[in-house]
């Protein structure tokens, strides 16, 4: 909501007592109604949107396990090939993540 109409990866904030893997599974189930398995932890990106708000974005490459995809919180969802990710208008914090995905794909290191 704070970056309305920008593209973001589905996810959300870690709750207390939760691991980052538990968090991403819970958030994807809550937001998209599907079960996923995190396969590869990418590098975090620390980003400051305003002086009062800093986020650590912790990206995972995940595998779809099961479930019917339902949009519970987002306006729109799309599947995008790694080579086309940079064409979208991303939330600022996401830009370095896109570069990581592109270079992993170029090196054939995406576990998909
Ligand atoms: N999920 C997600 N959030 C991102 C990305 N990039 C980015 O800047 N953010 C920001 O990181 C924050 C994540 O919070 P969220 O609102 O998704 O978390 P949440 O589901 O736990 O929400 P809640 O606090 O309303 O329960 C938001 O300010 C969001 O705009 C991204 O790629 N994915």
TrEMBL record:
Cofactor needs: Mg(2+)
Molecular-function GO terms, alphabetical: 8-oxo-7,8-dihydrodeoxyguanosine triphosphate pyrophosphatase activity; 8-oxo-7,8-dihydroguanosine triphosphate pyrophosphatase activity; 8-oxo-dGDP phosphatase activity; 8-oxo-GDP phosphatase activity; metal ion binding
Known catalytic reactions: 8-oxo-dGTP + H2O = 8-oxo-dGMP + diphosphate + H(+); 8-oxo-GTP + H2O = 8-oxo-GMP + diphosphate + H(+)
Keyword Ligase: no
Domain Nudix hydrolase: 1-102
EC nos: 3.6.1.55
BP GO annotations: DNA repair; DNA replication
Similarity-based family: Belongs to the Nudix hydrolase family.
Species for this entry: Belliella pelovolcani
Keyword annotations: DNA damage, DNA repair, DNA replication, Hydrolase, Magnesium, Metal-binding, Mutator protein
CDD domains assigned to the protein according to its UniProt record, in alphabetical order: NUDIX_MutT_NudA_like
Top-level taxon of the source organism: Bacteria
Keyword Magnesium appears in the UniProt entry: yes
Protein name as it appears in the record: 8-oxo-dGTP diphosphatase
Pfam families, sorted: NUDIX
